[in-house]
Amino acid sequence: MESDSLSSNISYFGRKLSDLNINDNSAAFSDCNSDRSGEFPTTSSQSRRLLLACASDNSEELISQLILDLQSDNIDDQKQAAMGIRLLAKNKPENRIKIARTGAIKPLVSIISSNDAQLQEYGVTAILNLSLCDENKDLIASSGAINPLVRALKLGTSTARENAACALLRLSQIEENKITIGRSGAILPLVNLLEIGNFRGKKDACTALYSLCSVKENKTRAVQAGIMKSLVELMADFGSNMVDKSAFVLSLLVSTPEARAALVEEGGIPVLVELVEVGTQRQKEIAACILLQLCEDSLIYRTMVAREGAIPPLVALSQTGTSRAKQKSEALIEVLRQPRSGNGAASARTSNVSV
């Protein structure tokens, strides 16, 4: 993702690149809920090596200087400072705490609102790296980062959008932030990123939506934003490497009536039945769980699932699946074999599937 570098002759506290011999083969600056995100090039940039080398000796002094530069009137100084902070926060948890405690959060939040796309991207990425530390999450949210991150998610570069999604995911790991993030308008641009983003963008959006949609009002927002179309398409595409993730998000949403209606409307039943038949063991299990939630209280949906040919693969799953898959497939078979029963296997209600 690295499209920028500090100028090769830049120095901090009298130290220049020519004086350094650093070997840093680290691949990625963060993960996004088990997904790697935002990788640096294989060969480290000169500026990156310089900053990491400086950090090993006098990170407090360097951090203070970078924070001053963040508040400069010169946009190039701001870019270099934001780049420096994002690099210093990449691998070292102790640096993330130092940077936040030294006062970097508020000036970083300010530059996330910049109309300069590159500066915004650097600020978003720095905030993401700082948010990897649990101790910083409350401070980032209370410093007003959520609205600027949502703006970057809507209008930023591809990298800024992906990293904003990851940062919002991190902040959403504090329960009370989930509603704030949803009400700040994050759900629709996350659904858009899930639909049109590159592979990394789709993963980041899906992961963030999984976290946010544990809250009921965000489930409604996601369905209204058209998430079902993207989820069904991703589940149907075995080459997307997104089948499991999209199915997990769907498993959260399908607890609501509007989500079940949208799932059926978008052609989700044939896709789920196919997953039960030819998916991996985990995919078969989660598809059976979703179909059971879909069918429990609806004669119409039970009839549709049965007509799609679900019973033979469900019988096979009840014999060869995981213990949970066997339980859910057996309950679903009972429901499907009693299509005129209004309540069917009501006692077999599923709970949300966890990652």
Description of the structure:
It is a single chain. The protein is mainly α. The protein has 20 helices and 2 strands. Strands 1-2 form a two-stranded antiparallel sheet. Strand 1 and strand 2 form a beta hairpin. It is elongated, with a radius of gyration of 24 Å. 50% of the residues are buried. The N terminus and C terminus are likely disordered.
Quick structural gist:
The chain is an all-alpha fold and 355 residues long.
Strand order of the largest sheet: 1-2
Number of helices: 20
Please tell me the overall pLDDT.
83
Secondary-structure class: mainly alpha
User: What oligomeric arrangement do these chains adopt?
Assistant: single chain
| Strand segment tally | 2
Task: State the shape.
Answer: elongated
Largest sheet: number of strands, sense, barrel closure: 2 strands, antiparallel
Cα-to-Cα separation, first versus last residue: 27 Å
User: What letter string, H or E per element, gives the SSE order?
Assistant: EEHHHHHHHHHHHHHHHHHHHH
DSSP strand content: under 5%
Radius of gyration: 24 Å
The proportion of residues forming helix, as a percent range, comes to 55-70%
> Ranges with pLDDT <50 over ≥5 residues?
1-31, 33-44, 341-355
